[in-house]
Amino acid sequence: MTLQNRSAIITGANQGLGQAIAQAFVAAGANVYLCARNGDLLEQARQEIAAHATAGQQVLAETCDVSKPEQVERLVANAIGALGSIQILVNNAGVYGPMGESETVDWAAWQQAIEINLYGTVLPTHAILPHFKAAQYGKIINLSGGGATNPLPRFTAYAASKAAVVRFSETIAEETRAFHIDVNAVAPGALNTRLLDEVLEAGPQVVGATFYKRAEAQKAQGGAGLDRGADLCVYLASAASDGISGKLISAIWDPWETLQDHQQDLRGDVYTLRRIIPKDRGQDWGDR
Fold it and tell me: What are the residues whose beta carbons fall under 8 Å from the beta carbon of 210, sequence distance 6 or more?
């Protein structure tokens, strides 16, 4: 019960990875305050998660659009009021946004994707930080993905917003280090969730033949399991990861279960976004 006596706000928790994270948190002993935009799906998820809670655990939920400042402020205030204190924030809510060549996509949809993916990470973080700073402790876990570290043609809003989430995480980690607040980004792997279904529904003409074939193969093979990403979030929400902050960690590829044994090494630029220069690739040009 590594999260016993801890309470968490989890956004985008009515399905997919968000629901899996909430389930893993409850299994680890945490109280959870869930939010999402679709109230019907949210209540259904809350009931499913609550069915596995112990008598002393609380599983609460509130509809919220995390791109709206006033709704986020209310969410955080209500969660603190209901649970007494919050130690963990998981910013999971996210969308792919419009798909297609950049100049052809709808601008309003592009802007909305930025608002949900980026503002929906920034706003809850801003709202919870005074509470965490007063407690001199807190855990913030921001969901990122492959769009943060590689070009993602025809998914420009998603790629731009997820890269921004990582650099935001790294920056807030530095701002809050003295308050013992850990801020990390998680790359959960290629998941078979509603986002994959949206890619397959859009078709190769929109997302590109290469990406579409990869999506078809992922659908057939099952993709990365939700449990791995959820378990990493449990680790980052627990005391075992205290002091690990400002990192982008892959649920699939990184040995995160033992990161606490490498605290000294993690003080540098390991698991961060950086610019590659010619010398990094063994080339002898590029210096002035």
Answer: none
Provide the edge-to-edge strand list for the sheet that holds 88-91: 59-63, 31-36, 7-11, 88-91, 138-143, 181-187, 248-250
Residue pair 152/159 in contact (Cβ under 8 Å)? The answer is yes
Q: Which of the 8 DSSP states describes residue 139? A: E
Cα–Cα distance between 231 and 29 in angstroms, integer?
13
Extract the tokens encoding 129.
């930080």
Distance between CA atoms of residues 212 and 134, nearest Å: 48
Q: Is 119 a catalytic residue?
A: no
- Please give the structure tokens belonging to residue 241: 């990861």
Report whether CATH 1.10.10.10 matches the domain 7-189+225-273: no
Task: Report, in this order, helix, strand and coil percent for the chain, each rounded to 5.
Answer: 55, 15, 35
The pLDDT tens digits for 105-119 are 999 999 999 999 999
All residues at 6 or more sequence positions from 108 whose CB lies less than 8 Å from its CB, including other chains: none
Q: What amino acid is encoded at 47 in this protein?
A: Q
pTM over 0.90: yes
- Of 68 and 211, the one with more pLDDT: 68
Among residues 158, 212, 235, 271, which one is catalytic?
158
Q: What is the DSSP letter of 273?
A: -
Contacting residues for 115 by C-beta, under 8 A, at least 6 apart: 67
